[in-house]
Design brief:
alpha/beta; 11 helices; globular; eight-stranded mixed sheet; 306 residues
């Protein structure tokens, strides 16, 4: 296994979404390597490593961010947490756009702003790409998630205008058993009830949790990287191939199929994205020498079990 890349210099890094799946893993990784980490919390700060913020009010205690070298912004309502209706779609949009605006404005207000802002966004930017492979040069797609992603990234403009290097970490489906969309799949497949969704031909661009954290740190530590960067493994696979891999690794049958109409009943408008196809490649990660520890879907699933 390739070891996680490490910065030679101790850094002070602030993280939003620090209690989430990716954020908690990132905080653990940074602290394990001796970096100082500040967590943004939605209540008064209780310890020296906390900074208060309230994204709905566009408030960040900017004084708490003085002296940070980088900010990794990962906050946002989970797209797969609840059935989509108009109210939840508004929450998905506002939780991303307002929080990014709050962070960017706070950083821009500092007399000595940090070197870097890594703004976590999503592959949803590209919409449904079908079987066509795309990289960071592709334009935004159409539909709800692409429109959210465009607003989300645009909200970081105050930080860019203040001279901060901003990268947009467009993340794929994170393979982890602790949470997220994949965390819901593991119990189903372990029970022998897993199967393809719809016709199974749609591409799922995935990344292991280990590589997601390593890639975020790569964005913090690589001065040449700004703008969009796809955080996804180099070998996108179809839902049918994901299903087969889950069966192989977990040694369970994968006989069931969830038909498209059933997904629409359970997921609401989100079903369109589950059934949509995103074949996205990590062009800029590979160009800047990033090494994937778990490049294949089988590797990523095995890593999630340990």
């Amino acid at each position: 296994m390739v070891t996680m890349q490490r910065s030679a210099l101790r850094k002070r890094v602030a993280v939003t979404g620090a209690s989430g799946l990716i954020g908690s893993a990132l905080v653990h990784s940074l602290r394990a390597d001796g970096h100082d980490v500040l967590r943004l919390v939605r209540r008064p700060a209780r310890t020296a490593d906390e900074v208060e913020w309230d994204p709905k009010r566009l408030y960040v205690d900017a004084a708490g961010l003085v002296g940070v070298d980088a900010v990794v912004h990962l906050a946002g309502a989970g797209v797969g947490e609840r059935r989509w209706n108009e109210a939840y779609k508004k929450e998905i949009r506002d939780s991303r756009v307002l929080s990014t605006t709050a962070v960017a404005q706070a950083l821009a207000s500092l007399a000595d702003p940090p070197e870097a802002l890594v703004c976590g966004t999503a592959l949803g930017f590209y919409g449904d790409t079908g079987t066509r492979a795309v990289d960071e040069s592709a334009p935004a797609g159409t539909g709800f998630l692409p429109s959210v992603c465009v607003e989300w990234e645009a909200a970081a403009a105050p930080a860019e205008e203040a001279g901060i290097r901003v990268t947009y970490a467009r993340t794929g489906l994170v393979v982890a058993r602790q949470g997220g969309a994949w965390g819901r799949l593991f119990p189903v497949f372990r029970a022998g009830l897993g199967g393809r969704m719809g016709d199974g031909r749609q591409y799922w661009s995935h990344i292991s949790l280990h590589d997601e954290v390593a890639a975020l740190r790569h964005l913090v530590d690589t001065p040449s990287l700004s703008g969009p960067v796809n955080l996804t493994a180099p070998e996108p696979v179809t839902n049918r191939e994901v299903t087969a891999a889950m069966g192989r690794v977990l040694r369970r049958p994968t006989l069931f199929t969830v038909p498209a109409p059933a997904l629409k009943v359970v997921l609401g408008d989100f079903a369109q994205d589950v059934l949509g196809s995103q074949r996205v490649l990590p062009g800029r990660l590979l160009e800047t020498g990033f090494d994937f520890a778990f490049p294949t879907i089988d590797d990523s699933i095995r890593a999630a079990l340990h």
